[in-house]
Specification:
Shape: globular
Number of strands: 5
Largest sheet: 3 strands, antiparallel
Order of helices and strands: HHEEHHHHHHHHHEEEHH
Helix content: 55-70%
Strand order of the largest sheet: 3-4-5
Radius of gyration: 22 Å
Number of helices: 13
């Protein structure tokens, strides 16, 4: 009796990914047209304005309160399929379906046994945090894809597998930094690691290409907001999270008797967005100062 050949583990991963796609799409379709959290509504609004040609702005005017990559991604979706929150959720679900395959592609170059690479892809496919994030408009999924692709190409640049590995690594890591700003230093770290491996030229390419999208965003903020900042949300969110009187419920924070949407712009967001010149320190410090000032006050309007 002829023994049937075993199904490769990589094929099992493909089958798992394909099986999860209808489930992800079902959740995306049934989510509805209303974002759950304030942050999602903000990403949606900025993306809708971008798709309509109105620039990177929210209800409070031109802004750098949100990192640009996620609104740009959603704006492309809206430009192609129309401005619909449901279409954005579907795009997020499809992007999440891509992540396990990207993870396996990266892991196969780093791990000797292909079975471990398939296991890494399966863990990405079943990761509860990614599964949940794919049903929101938060930039978690886009960040994950850019990060895995960027690190994978840094590894390939170190092995001199392709002349395009270094620019691809820089572009992917640069986009990861524009999706989640605290990842922006990775373009420099990747360049240094390549230089230490004797790949100085490739390290410079990774850093310079990665800094290009970040530099364009900072230059835009210097021109529009009057300060070369990467973002204006960090200080305010830090102060909000450190406020012992706040409590989060249904996507909003209660602030010593006052209602404050989670991660929402402070009452002075219009001043942060106003196109006038000021010290960069003012842009970073003003959200913290304003949030501390309204701590314990019931007169906070937001």
């Amino acid at each position: 009796m002829t023994k049937r050949p075993a199904i490769p583990l990589a094929l099992w991963l493909w089958l798992l990914v394909l099986a999860l796609v209808p489930l992800r799409l079902w959740f995306a379709w049934n989510h509805g047209e209303a974002p759950t959290f304030y942050d999602e509504g903000d990403y949606h609004q900025i993306a809708a304005k971008l798709a309509a040609g109105e620039g990177f702005s929210g209800s409070y005017g031109a802004t750098a309160f949100r990192p640009p990559a996620q609104p740009l991604f959603l704006a492309v979706v809206y430009a192609v399929f129309g401005t619909s929150v449901r279409s954005a959720y579907i795009a997020q679900a499809l992007l999440a379906s891509l992540l396990p395959l990207v993870t396996m592609w990266f892991a196969r170059s780093e791990l000797k046994h292909s079975g471990w690479a398939s296991l890494a892809g399966a863990l990405a496919a079943l990761h509860p945090g990614i599964a949940y994030a794919s049903t929101t408009l938060y930039p978690v999924v886009l960040t994950s894809v850019c990060l895995v692709v960027g690190v994978a190409y840094v590894s390939r640049a170190a092995l001199r597998e392709s002349r395009w590995s270094a620019p691809a690594a820089g572009l992917a890591l640069g986009m990861a930094g524009l999706t989640t700003p605290y990842l922006a230093p990775l373009v420099g770290i990747g360049g240094v690691l390549l230089a230490l491996r004797g790949r100085l030229r490739r390290g410079l390419v990774v850093t310079l290409v990665g800094l290009l999208p970040v530099g364009l965003w900072v230059a835009r903020n210097a021109d529009v907001l009057g300060a070369p900042v990467l973002g204006t949300h960090g200080g305010y969110n830090l102060a909000l999270g450190a406020n012992a009187s706040s409590r989060v419920s249904q996507g909003s924070s209660s602030h010593a008797g006052a209602s404050l949407p989670s991660s929402s712009p402070p009452p002075s967001s219009s001043s942060l967005s106003a196109p006038r010149r000021r010290s960069p320190n003012h842009d970073f410090a003003s959200p913290v100062i304003l949030c501390w000032a309204c701590t314990g006050s019931s007169s906070c309007g937001r």
